[in-house]
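Task card 7
Instruction: Convert sequence to structure tokens.
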Amino acid sequence: MIRAAILLGVLSMANPAMGQSFSCNMGTRPTCLGFGETACSSSGKCVNQNAVCFDSFQCDYRGFTCRSNVVECLDRHECLLRDHNTLVDEYNGLLDTHSRLVRDHNALISDHRDLRASHSDLIDQHRRNLEFTRQLQRDLDNVEGCLILARTLNDAQECIP
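Output:
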């Protein structure tokens, strides 16, 4: 019973330490590098204390990358994100311009249709006025001819329509 209590106590103290540990593949061992130190694998790949190790399938065949590479990658990502956001803003500006131009275009088409209808109405009115003027001219010519041929006042009065 005492052994079980001791074993339980040891396991409960070991649990936080196990939660913070990491494991390596069989045949490898972890290392912590100090300032200026490097570690080299059996294949001749060496890293310094700025290296961060990842699973070999996570990055490339070397299985590690330097923090400076990650920082450069993040800086490049931020630059690309800014460029992307600038392009999105430009696109949205162009889209707004396009929408305004489409509205203006449609308004111009509507105005054009209205003007064509007004023009057609004016042409019709002009034709009616022209026909009316021609009829008046014919009536005037007839009255004038009748008056020229009239011999008496009664003949002249009969010329008025």
